[in-house]
Amino acid sequence: MNEVFPASDLLNGGERFHVLAPPARLAVFGDPIEQSKSPLFQNAALRASGIDAQYIRLHVAPAELNASLKALPAAGFLGANLTYPHKTAALASLDAIDPAAKAIGAVNTVAIENGKLTGFNTDGAGFIRAIREEFFVDVRDLRVMVLGAGGGAGRAIAVQCAIEGCERLVLVNRSVEKAVSLAQELAPYFRSDRLIGPSERLAAIQHDSAALRAELEHVDLLVNATSVGMKRSDPALIPQAHLTPNLMVYDAVYAGGKTRLVEDAEHAGARAANGLSMLLHQGALAFEIWFNRPAPLAAMRAALPGA
Ligand code: ATR
């Protein structure tokens, strides 16, 4: 059941959460929020760890975000996750921000200690873990292309790749100016004499067929961070003929089963995976921040259909 609580329950002191069994001490804020899968695997993690707390969905409108965050400590919460549309707006309401979250410019995890709120971003680090799990490689050793680098998910992935020191980063966006401005921001991460042949370590290109094909010759990992592929009727994001067997393809989209991009990549003989592993690992990293212990990954995975 996708139960959703209104922000008013938190703003009124959180009395309603204390009488739940187990009491609600973690929440995901969003607008809309009923679609969030996080309670599935976070509650499995809490049960597997013997922690007497539950994780709930809270419907928080943009106008309620600041007050809702500030109300968390007094209501007995340990932390929260933030999803659309709150990840950037929340920066202004927190007492401290972790360096990776600051670089990404977005927060998806809040931890509460001594009444103070600290913001983290586990999307980027979750991506890195997902790639290691799916393809048995470290992003540090890869030439990466990010489609949708101008969006929120693309930015988190691209910034984290830069922080990790990936070999090469190609930022792709339909409106190319967003990719160019992100490349300017990330340039300091790529000033080194690592020798990788004729291609630039950092590039920004328009999402068009010819530019994609030329750059894909110098890429190991192709990442879709656009929302294209969530619906089965969505057009192909990239021509099938551009996909080659040497590529690893990671589709951050995880809508029901294989996405078109994953299918196209597999037909081309490439290794491919969808975004469920990133969803799982961003959640596992949040759990580790809240409880300072390894997340029970097997229990979390078992609670996430398809993972
Ligand atoms: P979010 O912030 O939640 O990731 P978003 O801001 O809507 O979502 O970003 C979606 C990303 O997908 C953007 O990079 C967008 O490109 P633009 O910046 O040019 O809008 C990209 N995107 C959306 N639809 C696309 C399409 N049909 N083809 C290519 N890129 C697309």
Highest-level CATH class of the largest domain: Alpha Beta
The 3D shape can be described as globular
Q: Got a strand count?
A: 13
Cα separation of the termini: 19 Å
Largest sheet: 7 strands, mixed
Succession of helices and strands = EHHEHEHEEHEEHEHEHEHEEHEHH
Hetero groups: 2'-monophosphoadenosine-5'-diphosphate
Low-pLDDT regions: none
Number of domains: 2
The mean pLDDT is 95
Q: Based on the structure given, which CATH architecture of the largest domain is correct?
A: 3-Layer(aba) Sandwich
SS strand fraction: 15-25%
Query: What portion of residues is helical?
Result: 25-40%
**Mind telling me the CATH superfamily name of the largest domain?**
NAD(P)-binding Rossmann-like Domain
Strands of the widest sheet, in order across it, are 1-3-2-4-6-7-5
CA gyration radius, whole angstroms: 20 Å
What is the fold's blueprint, element by element?
Layout: E1 4-6, H1 7-11, H2 15-18, E2 24-30, H3 38-48, E3 54-59, H4 65-71, E4 79-82, E5 96-97, H5 99-104, E6 109-113, E7 116-120, H6 122-135, E8 143-147, H7 152-164, E9 168-173, H8 176-186, E10 202-206, H9 209-216, E11 221-224, E12 248-251, H10 260-267, E13 271-274, H11 276-291, H12 297-302
Parallel strand pairs: 1-3, 2-3, 2-4, 5-7, 8-9, 8-11, 9-10, 11-12, 12-13
Antiparallel strand pairs: 4-6, 6-7
Helix pairs in contact: 3-11, 6-7, 6-11
Bound molecules: 2'-monophosphoadenosine-5'-diphosphate.
Residues 84, 148, 150-154, 173-175, 178, 207, 226-228 line the site of 2'-monophosphoadenosine-5'-diphosphate.
